[in-house]
Amino acid sequence: MVSASFGDTQTQILDAAEQLFAEQGFGATSLRSIIRAADVNLAAIHYHFGSKEKLIVATIERMAQPIVQAELKQLAAVQAEHPQPTVEAILHAMLAPALEIVYHGQGDRGLTQARLMGRCRTEPTIEPIGAQAFAKSSQTFLTALQQALPDQSTSELTWKFDLVIAMLIRVLCAADQPNAILQDNSPAETAAAIERLVHFAAAGMKS
Amino acid sequence: MVSASFGDTQTQILDAAEQLFAEQGFGATSLRSIIRAADVNLAAIHYHFGSKEKLIVATIERMAQPIVQAELKQLAAVQAEHPQPTVEAILHAMLAPALEIVYHGQGDRGLTQARLMGRCRTEPTIEPIGAQAFAKSSQTFLTALQQALPDQSTSELTWKFDLVIAMLIRVLCAADQPNAILQDNSPAETAAAIERLVHFAAAGMKS
DNA sequence: AATTAATTAAAACGTATGATTGAATGTAAC
DNA sequence: GTTACATTCAATCATACGTTTTAATTAATT
User: Fold this and answer.
1) How far apart are the first and last CA of chain A?
2) Contacts with A33 from chain B: Cβ below 8 Å
């Protein structure tokens, strides 16, 4: 039981599961296709995770944690600078981390994570798991937006916020398509694309 | 071979397939769960459709056809009245039919159709089928928007258009959640919700 | 070196999958 | 009424599914 070598098999399984769940969905992905991609034994999944359901939860939580952390950190930085940040500044803190992770992640990992995020909102069975993984981020940003737009009702802000998340996920998932918001991965172009998306979303939020 | 009684079994299969594909995804839905819900024999699917793949195509096309037709008709009406319609008018023609179908469809049919629409964009294997089913609508509305916003480049309009579709699908799929854009199904509330969404989307498009 | 615990491997469990078959049933035309 | 066609049905194919069990292997502790 060495902490350094912890989870080599676990990580292999999680990496393969992340990719296949993202591409095919949770229900359509078999444990056998995962162990084939991870090059491990079938029983390893049940040994390390217990069941397919628990593997799904572990995969989602591993994906969500760094994104939520980056979003909260960025929002805290913005709020430290300006006690009453603008809608644009809040949306920037919310959208930039995810976009940077996707566009500058190693290999296709970012796109995979984006698709997995999308899966969490489309699969009714999985939705509560995903909602819980992103709960801290959701409530924090919703509160910040409420302070920046005090004239709008909670329910109005809630569905608008929900639409901004939908836009973010779509931008992330469509990253490989022609006419994507961002074509090349240069830092300057990434920053410009984030600005475009923030501008688009802010216009809607303030409408 | 009577044209009047055509497709009783076919329709039962399509109805069940539509619901299950929408709820669980294409890969995760078995033909046996479909024939169980449709109360038909297993072989009926292969007799009437040929394979699971072809059933998927038939299900998507049946769902898309009336929506595309309603959208195009509404746009034609708007264009007949004003040769150069506003962004809001174009978006209204684009969003209202789908929203009305969902909110005023018989039973949960509308919500099911919305979820199926969403599936067509999230399942990589299925995406080309869905894209083709909505192709006519997409290109027509994109052209109309291009005329209303001549200062924006094609690629800019394309990703913005794509985001509006993502918002539409999200609104449709989240129709049953708390804090949805629309709470009750009264015609007045539906019209108001459409107006809110059009306003939100138009602000982004013009940004 | 011996013992214990952690991990991996192989095989099997019962059940479910998409697809196909050939017989049974209904329905039209002659 | 009988032929011809369209449709439904039950049974079966080979394969794949999630899970469990038991044995082999590896690593850490004494």
Assistant:
1) 57
2) none
Question: What are the pLDDT digits (tens) for A111-121?
Answer: 899 899 999 99
Neighbours of B77 (CB within 10 A): 12
CA–CA separation, B49 and A8 (whole Å): 46
Contact B159 A180 (CB under 8 A): yes
pTM above 0.85, yes or no: yes
| Mean pLDDT along residues B98-121 | 85
Which protein residue's Cα is closest to nucleotide C20 at C1'? B43
Q: Does B131 touch chain A (CB under 8 A)?
A: no
**Domain ranges (residues) in chain B:** 59-206
Select the CATH number that applies to the domain covering B59-206 from these four: 3.40.50.1370, 1.10.357.10, 1.10.600.10, 2.40.110.10: 1.10.357.10
What would the pLDDT profile of B116-150 be if each residue is shown by its tens digit?
999 999 888 999 999 999 999 999 999 999 999 99
Asked if A28 and B28 come within 8 Å (Cβ–Cβ), the reply is yes
Could you check: is the Cβ of residue B31 within 7 Å of any atom of nucleic acid strand C?
yes
